[in-house]
Each structure stands twice: as C-alpha cells, then as structure tokens.
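Most newcomers find our protein records easier to grasp once they have seen one. To make this concrete, we reproduce a full record directly below:

…
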Amino acid sequence: MAKNLPDERVVYLSLRGTFSGTNAHTRRSKVIRKLIEKHQHDDVVSDLVWEHGIDDICTLARVLLHEGIFSSVRTAERRFPGVSDGPEESRTPKLLSDLCGRCKKIDFDKIFCTQPESG
C-alpha cells in the first residue's frame, strides 16, 4: 500500500513561520527536525505532525528548503499559486479535494489567519 504523504502546500503553510529568516537556509536533517520539534506545540504544526508523523513532515520540509521555497515568497508563489499574503480568498486552497484525506481535517483557518513570526 502506498504511503499517503501530506500535501506540500499544507506543509509550507504550516511551517513557513518556523523556517523564516535565517532558518530558511537550513539544510541539515537534524536541525530541521529540531526546529519542527521546537514548534510542535503550535496548533497547525502539531495537527500536521499528529496526522502524518514527524518523519514525513521533516522529509517534505527538507525538500522544500532545498528548493528555496521558504526563503522566497516569489518562489513559494510560483510553486503554490495563491499562498502570498494577498486577500484571504487567494490564500485558501482552491481544490481541497486535491488534498489527501488527512490534510482535509486540518483547520485551514489557523494556517491562513496566522502570520509568520518574524525573528
């Protein structure tokens, strides 16, 4: 049976506050895992980890970090159209049916209404 990985857009939206600033240039797996564990008490991160497990979240976060998705809003917007800080309607995933069954349970209002922490 194929493993049901989380949607990359959901991982990006959930972790963009975690991997902002200098953390956007993190590439080492151990450091990525420690940062996710540090923010695991945040509602959206804990929901994601609970639904998919920390190993899968770390793997996808590492892929997104290597592709520069967290370090550039423009790159993120090209990869995930509609995730910029524009009107809320444009940030909501257009086709929730494209998300895996587990990601559909995540409270997107928490993700879209929470601004990334600056730091």
Q: What stands out?
A: The CA atoms of residues 89 and 118 lie 23 Å apart.
